Amino acid sequence: MNKTIETILDHRSIRSFQDKPLTREQIETIITTAQAASTSSFIQAYSIIGVSDQNKKDQLAEVVGNQPYVAKNGHFLVFCADLNRHAQIAEMENIDVIPSIESTEKFMVSVIDAALAAQNAAIAAESMGLGICYIGGIRNNLEAVQSLLKTPDYVVPLFGMAIGYPAKVNDKKPRLPLEHVYMENEYQQDTATFIKQLEDYNQVISAYYRERTDGKREDTWTEQIGQMLEKKSRMYMKDFVQNRKMDLR
Ligand SMILES: Cc1cc2nc3c(=O)[nH]c(=O)nc-3n(C[C@H](O)[C@H](O)[C@H](O)COP(=O)(O)O)c2cc1C
C-alpha cells in the first residue's frame, strides 16, 4: 500500500460540490497529468475543453439530462477524441493521412487516448483532495454539445468530468470480485462459477444500496444493469461520429 494506491482505492463519484472554483494552477496541474498518460504511437489524439463560462455550464447541465453538478462545481472538463490536428499535419508534411484518420482504428485510438488522459486527470484531482464525476450524459445530445463547444470535424466530445471540492461524499461502491474480471492465460468460461460470483456480488450491492438509502433501494447489480441494457440508448452515435468524418472505414 502507498499513497497513490490509497488514492485510487478511495475513489467514489462526487455529485455535490462546494461553490469554490479551482485555481488556474490546479487546473493546469490536472491537465498536465492528463497529458502525461501513455498515448498510442505518441499520437496524442484528444483535446480537453475546460468550461468556465457559467452560462455554458448551465446549458450543458440541461443538455446532459439535468445533472446539476455539471453547472455547480469547481471546474468542468469535456474530453474529446481529436484527430483534427492530425488532419492538419497532412498539409504541413505534404502527405495524405485522411484515409488513415477516417478509419475505425484511428477513432478507437483517439477514444482510448482520451480515456487514459481522463483517468490520469481524475486520479490527480482526487490526490489533491478534490472529487470528480465523469459525465457520459454529454453524449445524450452531441449536436447541442458540438454547437456549444464549437468542435470541428475530426473531433467527437466523449464525456465530461465535473471536478471540485466535495460537499457530499457517498460510500464507496463495491466492485465485482477480482476473480470475476481477472483471468490468467485464457478467457474463463465456466458458467456455474460465473453465475455464483454474480449472485454473491448481487448480495453485496443490494446491501450497499440498502445502507446508502435507509432501505429505500435494494436492487441487485444484475437487475440494475439488466434494466439499463434492456433499453437502447444513444443509437444516433454511429451517424454522429461518421458525420464528424471519423470511423468511416
Ligand atoms: C464514462 C463515464 C460516464 C459517466 N457518466 C455519468 C453521468 O453522466 N452522470 C453521473 O452521475 N455519473 C456518471 N458516471 C459515474 C458512474 O455512474 C460511476 O463511476 C459508477 O456508478 C461507479 O461509481 P463510483 O464512481 O462512485 O465508484 C460515469 C462514469 C464514466 C466512467
UniProtKB/TrEMBL annotation:
The record ties this protein, via NCBIfam families, to: PRK10765.1
What family does the Swiss-Prot or TrEMBL record give for this protein? Answer: Belongs to the flavin oxidoreductase frp family.
Q: Which domain of life is it from?
A: Bacteria
Q: Which UniProt keywords apply?
A: Flavoprotein, FMN, NADP, Oxidoreductase
* The UniProt record lists the keyword Transcription: no
Q: List, for all copies, the residue spans of the domain called Nitroreductase.
A: 9-165
- The name of this protein is FMN reductase (NADPH)
Q: Which Gene Ontology terms cover its molecular function?
A: oxidoreductase activity
Pfam families the record matches: Nitroreductase (PF00881)
Species per Swiss-Prot/TrEMBL record: Mesobacillus persicus
